[in-house]
Specification:
Elements (H helix, E strand, L loop, with lengths): L3 E6 L13 E4 H4 L4 H13 L7 E6 L5 H14 L4 E5 L6 H10 L10 E5 L11 E7 L8 H11 L4 E6 L10 E7 L2 E8 L3 H10 L2 H8 L6 E4 L5 H12 L7 E2 L20 H6 L14 E5 L6 E5 L2 E3 L1 H15 L10 E4 L5 H9 L3 E4 L4 H8 L5 E4 L3 E4 L7 H18 L9 H12 L1 E12 L1 H14 L3 H11 L6 E6 L2 E2 L6 E2 L4 E5 L4 E6 L7 E11 L9 H16 L1 H5 L6 E2 L1
Parallel strand pairs: 3-4, 3-5, 4-9, 10-11, 10-12, 15-16, 15-17
Antiparallel strand pairs: 1-7, 2-6, 5-6, 8-9, 12-13, 13-14, 17-18, 19-25, 19-26, 20-23, 21-22, 23-24, 24-25
Helix pairs in contact: 2-3, 2-5, 7-13, 10-11, 10-13, 16-17
Bound molecules: 6-O-phosphono-alpha-D-glucopyranose (G6P) and zinc ion.
6-O-phosphono-alpha-D-glucopyranose binds next to loops.
Cofactor: Mg(2+)
GO biological process, one term: glucose metabolic process
GO molecular function, one term: magnesium ion binding
């Protein structure tokens, strides 16, 4: 079959600015005529020379509108001289799997993909009236850096034409196989492949599947994995059930749905309700058969939440515990860790591990791309964020299933060291031993979602102005609660990338207390409506007698200070947050 390249006139759309995680808007916005075409053409224009003869990956979390977008992108790619488009069967590929495909999959002549359009709005709901997104990832498998996304945005503002292949019928993406067409630049093909293949191979190379399999086969071990109807389900089925022989009843919501079953595919204590219930959190009455281990993923499977029986592992603790246990439990890290990193609002639990193990340590702004730079330079092996993202340098995205396999590996390793025939070493045991060794960082995050954008800006500006006087800050604190330690420093976080020297400013407002406690305020970069204010509250405790108290109890005084200091209710009109994690 042949096609011709048609040049179509277009006019720019406002606001096609890719954020931290790509262009994310309501489906109704994406459905406007030429909206997808403009953005994809602008991306190809920004990539320039690299496009002709390249291989481009296109797939995502399977949310509503993905299938339409895939057909459009195939045609725009063909007309721009792309040689091959690689698509996961049914248009599915998790974000970490895309990263693995870009880095590892090879074409017929041994060539690799140049980049990928990932079709996802991550943890945001999906459906005709919900969110869609397009994110471009580059050669290293990571999200495009700001230099590229700025260029794309500036092109979208003046775009007046796009190319599209005419004469190509819609490609059947429900079956694996190759469709080839002849075009003005030579043959063009669409390759549909098994979306689990590259990713599963990579996981087998990183982890000891035999050891995990033995853990899963213990009669006293049970597990529940909730994919929240996102794309993680297909990987969970393949890895946990087909490869590791887990009981299929361990899988919850593992069939991907275009609208995530009407839910909010975000793995946290608020939205992963069914899992939280099964794991017995918030209940004191004895429930039969609570699984020993629970985990969930977001829509595109890069986020994770880890739970034990009636026990929540904070993401900040999770990365610290993985870093502390990686060598010995995970074959990929046999040679040691090159370094570790966390985002600024993430608790300092990882810092303590880095210090104790004498590891290179980095504190970066929120956003996975900052880790990517460190990893490309060989400076970081394990990293994580409070926003339920954990990962390593095996790819350049955070990785939800990887985090679960890391935890299963640690559980398997600890149990293999325990006396045989003894009681199971649980998630809670591992966390409590960690706290006893390194101290505990009590941590919570308050989210005020969909706040008036002007009010949110005013609150942030007020906090910055407050920071000019430490004595004013401490006066407010002492008035509220004289027992709370003083603030010794207030600033806006700024980061100079040690690899490329770039400087990122205004990355969050920090109040640092003399006992190491912290309050951080930042505006979310991923919302699609109004503004979301995030308040992060952290307190370090190394006294063994105090480590076991309830997190909400330990943090209550700091929460009160944070709300008073920021005049949260006055600015936002909200007396309580929408989500607490
Ligand atoms: C995405 C990024 C993460 C980041 C998170 C922050 O998930 O991939 O690296 O931590 O957004 O979101 P926020 O809404 O707090 O800006
Ligand atoms: Zn995600």
């Amino acid at each position: 079959m042949g096609f011709v390249r048609a040049v179509k006139e277009t006019t720019p759309y406002d606001g096609q600015k890719p954020g931290t995680s790509g262009l994310r808007k309501k489906v109704t916005v994406f459905k406007q005529p030429r909206y997808v075409e403009n953005f994809v053409q602008a991306t190809f224009n920004a990539l320039g020379e690299k496009v002709k003869g390249s291989i481009i990956v296109v797939s995502g979390d399977g949310r509503y509108f993905s299938k339409d977008a895939i057909q459009i992108i195939i045609k725009v790619a063909a007309a721009n001289g792309v040689k091959q488009v690689w698509i996961g069967q049914n248009g599915l590929l998790s974000t970490p799997a895309v990263s693995a495909v870009i880095r590892n999959r090879v074409g017929p002549d041994g060539e690799k993909a140049t980049g990928a359009f990932i079709l996802t709005a991550s943890h945001n709901p999906g459906g005709p009236h919900e969110d869609f997104g397009i994110k471009y990832n580059t050669e290293n498998g990571g999200p495009a850096l700001e230099s590229l996304t700025d260029k794309i945005f500036s092109i979208t503002k003046t775009i007046n034409e796009y190319y599209i292949a005419e004469g190509i019928a819609d490609v059947d993406i429900s079956e694996c196989g190759t469709s080839t067409f002849s075009g003005p630049d030579g043959p063009f093909s669409v390759v549909v492949f098994d979306p689990t293949e590259d990713y599963v191979n990579l996981m087998k190379h990183i982890f000891d599947f035999g050891a995990i399999k033995s853990l899963l086969s213990r009669p006293d071990f049970s597990f529940c994995y909730d994919a929240l109807h996102g794309v993680a389900g297909i990987y969970a089925q393949k890895i946990f059930v087909d490869e590791l022989s887990a009981d299929p009843s361990f899988l919850l919501n593992c069939v991907p749905k275009e609208d995530f079953g009407g839910g909010h595919p975000d793995p946290n204590l608020t939205y992963a309700k069914e899992l939280v219930h099964r794991m017995g959190l918030g209940k004191t009455d004895p429930i039969e058969e609570i699984p020993e281990f629970g985990a969930a993923a977001d829509g595109d499977a890069d986020r994770n939440m880890v739970l034990g029986k009636r026990f929540f592992v904070t993401p900040s603790d999770s990365v610290a515990i993985i870093a502390a246990n990686a060598v010995g439990a995970i074959p990929y890290f046999e040679g040691g860790l090159k370094g570790v990193a966390r985002s600024m609002p993430t608790s300092a639990a990882l810092d303590v591990v880095a210090k104790a193990l004498n590891l290179k340590f980095f504190e970066v702004p929120t956003g996975w791309k900052f880790f990517g730079n460190l990893m490309d330079a060989g400076m970081c092996s394990v990293c994580g964020e409070e926003s339920f993202g954990t990962g390593s340098d095996h790819i350049r995205e955070k990785d939800g299933i990887w985090a679960v396999l890391a935890w299963l590996s640690i559980l398997a390793h600890r149990n293999s060291q325990a006396p045989s025939g003894g009681k199971l070493v649980t998630v809670e045991d591992i966390v409590r031993v960690h706290w006893a060794t390194y101290g505990r960082h009590f941590y919570t995050r308050y989210d005020y979602e969909n706040v008036d954008a002007g009010a949110a800006k005013e609150l942030m500006a007020y906090l910055v102005s407050l920071q000019s006087s430490l004595s004013d800050i401490n006066r407010i604190i002492k008035d509220v609660n004289p027992d709370v330690p003083s603030v010794v420093k207030g600033d806006e976080f700024e980061y100079k990338d040690p690899v490329d020297g770039s400087v990122s400013k205004h990355q969050g407002i920090r109040f640092l207390f003399e006992d190491g406690s912290r309050l951080v305020f930042r505006l979310s970069g991923t919302g699609s409506e109004g503004a979301t204010i995030r308040l992060y509250i952290e307190q370090y405790q190394s006294h063994t007698s105090k480590i076991g108290i309830e997190s909400q109890v330990a943090l209550a005084p700091l929460v009160e200070i944070a709300l008073k200091l920021s005049k949260m209710e006055e600015f936002t009109g909200r007396s309580s947050p929408t989500v607490i994690t």
